[in-house]
Design goal:
Elements lengths: L1 H25 L12 H16 L17 H12 L2 E10 L10 H15 L2 E3 L2 H11 L5 H7 L4 E10 L2 E10 L6 E9 L13 H15 L16 E10 L13 H16 L6 E2 L2 H10 L13 H9 L2 E12 L2 E12 L2 E12 L4 H16 L2
Parallel strand pairs: 1-2, 1-3, 6-7, 6-8
Antiparallel strand pairs: 3-4, 4-5, 8-9, 9-10
Helix pairs in contact: 1-2, 4-7, 8-11
């Protein structure tokens, strides 16, 4: 009877995991939206996390094995797989600036790390209960390495979290107990897509897991670790302005009417395309401007190229690429140009540029051309 109950819980947990994964990675969120979280999903998520915490060793890689979960042979094989996994021990987590600690706690980090280990199919997260028992057994005067040895953990993790408006950043440092003098680190980012309808509070869980997966993949030098979840390490990108150059003053292009509004619309259009890519992590306008404000850069407009100070501010927070647009009237029509620039050391290098000319004064067609050029800019 116990085996059947366990298997049913596994099926339930599997469904919750993939529902969450589907919502996070397959629904198109072109803007930050307030959403209501369905009660059944909240209840399912809570029950799944409780079950993960209660019996992590039973919930192993068979979440990802498409076979008969009621077969006792599969259950014994799963437990055998667990023993081959590298155990990871979370020694310390730091919740830094920007994060709403009224709704965020270290338990969320532990739950996300648990799912991270499960989805990696390589690691096993040492549960807090086991750590507590190890500390009681060691009694006093023990080190982090003593705890790791007691629970047979091969890797010790330190995690730091930060939030920049709608962007979540995870930094993970890993110490290999067999080579303690070497520390590997990784950073991972993810936009926060979900906000509660009642009080506009961020729903951290999906973004927390994705950012930690990216950070851990970098730290372990394994970019394909979470390929089944379509999660890969990705550089930070910002959209930094669209210049309007009207060389033919006699021309009457509609898109030049109210440049402030049009540049905002173009920036949002580019963001919508970039936000669908798993190769880039793109700042939305609100988060980008929040970084500027931290350096007292206010009133930044989208219809001019970024200043040296703006680029320096972005670089300070890990942005390594930015896109600059340009609309210029010519004798042939309206030239639309997009350029991908890399911020490296103290210089900026243009990595790639795409352009085309539109001859019809049609705002809708111009926006469609911008979408096409954005996709082309992302193509290797």
């Amino acid at each position: 009877m116990h085996i059947y109950i366990l298997a049913l819980f596994r099926i339930f947990a599997k469904q919750v995991f993939f529902i969450t994964h589907y919502i996070t990675h397959n629904i198109n969120f072109t803007q930050m939206k307030k959403v209501s979280i369905p009660p059944i999903l909240l209840i399912s998520g809570i029950l799944a996390i409780v079950f993960f915490s209660y019996n992590n060793r039973a919930l192993s890689s068979d979440i990802f094995i498409s076979s008969n979960l009621l077969d006792s042979n599969n259950i014994s094989q799963t437990r055998a797989l667990d023993s081959s996994r590298t155990r990871i021990y979370l020694a310390k987590s730091i919740i830094s600036y920007g994060i709403d600690t009224s709704i965020f706690s270290s338990q969320k980090i532990e739950a996300a790390l648990n799912l991270l280990a499960l989805s990696s199919e390589k690691y096993e997260f040492v549960q807090p209960e086991e750590i507590h028992k190890a500390k009681e057994k060691l009694y006093k005067n023990f080190t982090t390495f003593d705890i790791a040895k007691e629970v047979n953990a091969k890797k010790i993790l330190f995690i730091k979290l930060e939030q920049l408006r709608n962007m979540l950043r995870s930094e993970i440092s890993v110490i290999n107990t067999e080579n303690p003098n070497t520390v590997s680190s990784g950073e991972g980012y993810s936009l926060i897509h979900y906000f509660t309808e009642e009080d506009n509070k961020p729903v951290y869980d999906p973004s927390l897991l994705a950012s930690m997966q990216r950070a851990f993949a970098v730290a372990e030098n394994d970019s394909l670790m979470f390929k089944k979840q379509n999660i890969f390490p990705a550089p930070l990108l910002a959209i930094c302005g669209v210049e309007f150059i009207n060389e033919n003053q006699n021309s009457d292009w509609d898109i030049f009417n109210n440049e402030l509004v049009r540049s905002y619309e173009i920036t949002e259009t580019i963001f919508e395309i970039l936000n669908k890519s798993n190769k880039w992590i793109t700042f939305d306008i609100d988060s980008r401007d929040y970084i500027y404000s931290m350096f007292n850069l206010y009133g930044v407009e989208n219809n001019i190229a970024p200043s040296i100070e703006e680029i320096a501010a972005l670089k300070r927070f890990g942005v390594t690429y930015y896109i600059l647009g340009r609309l210029r009237t010519t004798s042939l029509g309206l030239e639309v140009r997009l350029a991908l620039n890399e911020i490296k050391n103290n210089s900026v290098t243009e990595v790639k540029k795409v352009s085309n000319i539109i001859t019809i004064n049609d705002l809708k067609k111009t926006m469609e051309l911008i979408k096409e050029l954005t996709k082309k800019l992302l193509t290797p």
